[in-house]
Amino acid sequence: MDAAVRAARDAFVGWSATPPSARAEVLHAIADGIERRAAGLAAVETADNGALLRSHVNSVIPRAAANFRFFADWLGRLDGGDLEIRGHREQVSWAPSGVTGVITPWNAPLMLATWRIAPALTAGNTVVAKPPEWAPLTASLLADVCAEAGLPDGVFNVVQGLGREAGAPLAAHPGLSRLCFTGSVATGRQVAAAAGAQLTPASLELGGKSPLLVFADADLDLAVRHAAGQYDNAGQVCLAGTRLLVAEPVAGEFLDRFLAAAAALRQGDPRSPDTDIGPNITREHLARVDGFVRRAIAAGARPLLGGAVNPELGGLYYQPTLLADAAPGAEIVTEEVFGPARPRRSRWPTALATGWRPRCSPATRSGRRASRPGWWRGRSGSTASSSATCGRRSAGRGSPGSAARAAPGASTSTGT
User: Fold this and answer.
1) pLDDT over 70 for what percent of the chain?
2) How far apart are CA 278 and CA 317, in angstroms?
3) CB 88: neighbour CB atoms within 10 A?
4) 300 Ramachandran zone, left/alpha/beta (phi>0; psi -120 to 50)
5) Residues carrying an active site annotation
6) What domains can be seen in the chain, in order of their start residue?
7) Cα–Cα distance list, 242 to 184, 217, 337 (Å)
8) How far apart are the first and last CA of the chain?
9) How far is Cα 404 from Cα 220, in angstroms, rounded to an integer?
């Protein structure tokens, strides 16, 4: 890790001085390289983490390329933006910070890495990336793409290894100027503490327990389709609506439709175009998911769907699961499972069922009252490169893709 950070610091001198137009040219070349290798990257990603091949081909890998293009194009907008305040002129300048550490998760390793790496490189920073040990391969392939695109040596570095061997030393490294982490709340706390000891600014995109709200006047066809879609990637998605809250007037009809739609989902080989739900990533993670479900049932929850490993497929395939009658404060309701299991309720907490802005729709009011600020109306789980998806409370802090602020890793200064 010391060697990687040292290489990044040495390369920072030249890369930070590279004209923005030249940096943008390299970033577009990286996007070109991802697109040329898209089929191979998708196949490797599916073999590594078990997510659907068709999802990687159609959306996830193209999004990785799009992240580089978006931030390359955005580079021309960092023009200073001087301010006039009470008769004084304040000059705003944007300057690269230094070495950015990037620690990414296993559920969409390449795409989520590029959401951090692309803006850091755009800002003129260099990067040391620690990929997830459960799905590490595409990070090394990205390094090959960067080299072929003409990115100078040392600007982008990949260090493979377990969290305690590579992630912890990176988070605590005194040579970092910025740190970006995407992962669990528990690990995020450790990362934040390590970065804090060095006073390293850290951006944390952590877990959540987002509700999927179905209102009494909802389009039930649309609602059922989106609710069943929350089992995507075997539920291993931080943006998934993992608590199903349905208004009582439509609860019965919605449940009947939802159970039929969920039961029709095809579980199997993620490489098959006919598969809707693939496996969980490891036996360790499968056991974690099963533990949540078993404890919930023991505490009084009732399975309406699934509730165990798929009896026909076995292995890492956990059935899509829906649990009723879980108590409001139960573990299955409050903790992130990160698997295809979720609770269902038809009586909403007051904070979600009522709002405080009379001119807002119920969906808008409830979204503003929810504890996780990334919310969608009429669709779910869609984030553009420009989306401001900063966290609140234990969901994290910082904004990995927002174009409304400086690219992660850029620093601003003002002077009069």
Assistant:
1) 82
2) 7
3) 8
4) left
5) 205, 238
6) 2-207+383-415 (3.40.605.10), 211-369 (3.40.309.10)
7) 15, 21, 8
8) 40
9) 34
